[in-house]
Design brief:
By secondary structure, the protein is an alpha/beta fold. The protein has helices at 13-23, 36-44, 57-72, 75-81, 97-112, 116-124, 132-137, 142-149, 152-159, 172-184, 193-199, 212-215, 253-266, 285-288, 296-305, and strands at residues 27-31, 49-54, 223-227, 241-243, 272-277, 292-294, 313-319.
Length: 320
């Protein structure tokens, strides 16, 4: 039984990076997950103080494994360990439960939609993505792949019913099909490492196609790790930026209200909170009341540049 749910973070760390520059944040709180955001931010901002929180200790251990591998292996071994050019399931960026789901999706597509070599060429030869609709979307099995691998039954078995509680029942197949079709037909698809990870199972060895922490690994780390929930993080008032990932998608309303109340009580004036929503269209702004000022336009702009494609909305609020 694999205790690592997420080997990678399917969120674009450049959103957090933009917020750090905008707010001049020096101390941030992140959900650990697969560690990619934390590692990238540390590479971009060497003096940034980063606290990682995760209720799953295996996720924090995965971050430690990545930190060690970045420093203690040579370049060739690093490619193997971080799934650069290899989709081996033992790699640090492929050995999570969500990655197993995408492995199944990928193999189904390779078998019945388009073979692996043809899909690889989409991302290796410029211009080939112009034919992606004909190569992938026109297949009668394309939509079936999403029906199978994003069914409520599979998602609930893997993550529990909490993960899908705020979504319309049965909506995930079309949600993910639509977002991937949009991503694959976008102008930036060729170098989008999130798409590579899904449809190839590995990162491409190109400077424009690697997560930043693999292109320029951090020299050192200013990480503090907390195994627990947000309310167990000490001194919440020290943070300039709190990035909540999409944890509220996983929480019932009573827990969401409790979390927001905790933020209202503990976050210092001027601090910024960022949260994402995935296939969840619940308006949470009434629960924040007037204690936070949300910048709707900034949230829309961040969603437009979010290369992971996963999220239906992003929300940026400043504590009044």
């Amino acid at each position: 039984d694999n205790k690592v749910q997420f080997a990678v973070v399917r969120e674009d760390p450049m959103v957090e990076a933009a917020l750090i520059r905008l707010t001049k944040a020096s101390n941030v709180l992140l959900v650990a997950s697969g560690g990619c955001t934390a590692l990238t931010l540390q590479a971009l901002f060497p003096d940034l103080q980063i606290t990682l929180v995760d209720f799953n200790p295996a996720q924090l251990e995965r971050v430690r494994e990545k930190m060690s591998a970045l420093h203690n292996v040579d370049a060739a071994a690093r490619c193997q360990r971080f799934n650069i050019g290899t989709s081996h399931p033992s790699g640090l960026n492929q050995s999570g439960n969500f990655e197993s789901l995408f492995r199944g999706l990928r193999e189904f597509i390779f078998d019945l939609v388009a073979d692996e070599a043809e899909i690889r060429l989409l991302f290796e030869e410029k211009g080939r993505l112009a034919d992606v609709s004909e190569i992938l979307f026109s297949s009668k099995y394309w939509s079936v792949a999403f029906d199978l691998y994003f069914s409520d039954s599979l998602l609930n078995a893997m993550f529990g019913p909490d993960a899908t509680q705020h979504a319309e029942p049965g909506s995930y197949p079309r949600y993910f099909q639509t977002l991937f079709e949009k991503g694959l037909t976008s102008a930036k698809a060729f170098d989008n490492y999130f798409l590579h990870h899904v449809f190839l199972g590995y990162y491409l060895q190109r400077p424009a196609s690697l997560p930043y922490y693999l292109l320029a690994p951090p020299a050192d780390y200013c990480f503090q790790m907390v195994a627990g929930t947000l309310d167990q993080v000490p001194e919440l008032q020290r943070f300039d930026l709190i990035s909540l990932s999409n944890i509220m998608d996983w929480m019932p309303l009573v827990e969401i209200v409790s979390l927001i109340s905790h933020l209202q009580n503990e976050v210092k004036p001027g601090a910024t909170v960022l949260y994402r929503q995935l296939n969840n269209y619940t308006d949470l702004s009434p629960y924040f009341g007037d204690s936070f000022e949300f910048d709707a336009a900034l949230g829309v702009r961040f969603r437009e540049i979010e290369r992971s494609l996963f999220y239906s909305s992003l929300h940026v609020g400043k504590r009044r």
